């Protein structure tokens, strides 16, 4: 098909290349049972603090909630003082999540990976220690439930911050295509 020159010059094609793997990161869908009266979903099954059914051992030390208003960017943070792995699950709304491996000598060092977490198709996103993580809430905002294998210590916070645009402003740009 022939296009006018201005349209031909401006034309871009969406790419569907596979995203890079980040060592230790995994996403595990959860089953949401729906009916006309509502829905039910199991978040975690615990046996002595350890979560059942994961591909790794994960001992839960704390469970928290985070609410984000529409468009909120909460990025980037790490837990550099002590190991802290997290399991994220969005209960309401959507989050655009970016993960970046900043672990020295990791086989996936420098890899950036995007996830869209949604209450419509809930799942667990495992974020290991040393992977910078941040999110942008969707147009409805979001409610994030997350489990950690380390407890927050207000006398010695383990919450290191990088600037929201440290890995590029394009990560958070709106898709207007």
How would you describe the overall organization of this protein?
- By secondary structure, the protein is mainly beta.
- Helix content is 3%, strand content 44%.
- The protein contains 1 helix and 12 strands; from the N terminus they run H-E-E-E-E-E-E-E-E-E-E-E-E.
- It has one helix at 5-10, and strands at 26-29, 32-35, 38-41, 46-47, 50-51, 62-68, 73-78, 86-101, 112-118, 123-127, 131-148, 160-161.
- Strands 1, 6, 7, 8, 9, 10, 11 and 12 form an 8-stranded antiparallel β-sheet that branches.
- Strand 2 and strand 3 form a beta hairpin.
- The two termini are 21 Å apart.
- The model has no long low-confidence stretch (mean pLDDT 94).
CA radius of gyration is: 18 Å
Helix count equals: 1
Note the main sheet: 8 strands, antiparallel
User: How many beta-strand runs?
Assistant: 12
Q: Which class do the helix and strand fractions yield?
A: mainly beta
Beta-strand level of the residues, as a percent range?
35-45%
Give the low-confidence spans: none
- The SSE order reads HEEEEEEEEEEEE
- Shape call: globular
Helix content: under 10%
Tell me, rounded to a whole number, the average pLDDT: 94
Separation of the first and last Cα atoms: 21 Å
């Amino acid at each position: 098909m022939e296009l006018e020159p201005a349209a031909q010059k401006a034309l871009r094609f969406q790419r569907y290349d596979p995203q890079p793997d980040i060592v230790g990161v995994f996403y595990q869908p959860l089953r949401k049972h729906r009916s006309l009266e509502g829905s039910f979903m199991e978040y975690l099954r615990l046996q002595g603090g350890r979560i059942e059914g994961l591909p790794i051992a994960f001992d839960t030390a704390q469970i928290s909630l985070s609410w984000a208003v529409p468009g909120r960017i909460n990025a980037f943070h790490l837990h550099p003082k002590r190991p802290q792995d997290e399991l994220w699950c969005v209960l309401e709304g959507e989050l655009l999540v970016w993960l970046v491996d900043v672990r020295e000598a990791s086989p996936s060092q420098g890899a950036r990976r995007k996830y869209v977490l949604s209450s419509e198709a809930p799942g667990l996103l495992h974020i290991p220690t040393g992977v910078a993580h941040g999110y942008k809430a969707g147009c409805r905002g979001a409610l994030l439930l997350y489990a950690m294998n380390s407890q927050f210590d207000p006398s010695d916070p383990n919450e290191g911050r990088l600037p929201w645009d440290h890995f590029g402003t394009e990560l958070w740009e709106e898709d207007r295509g």
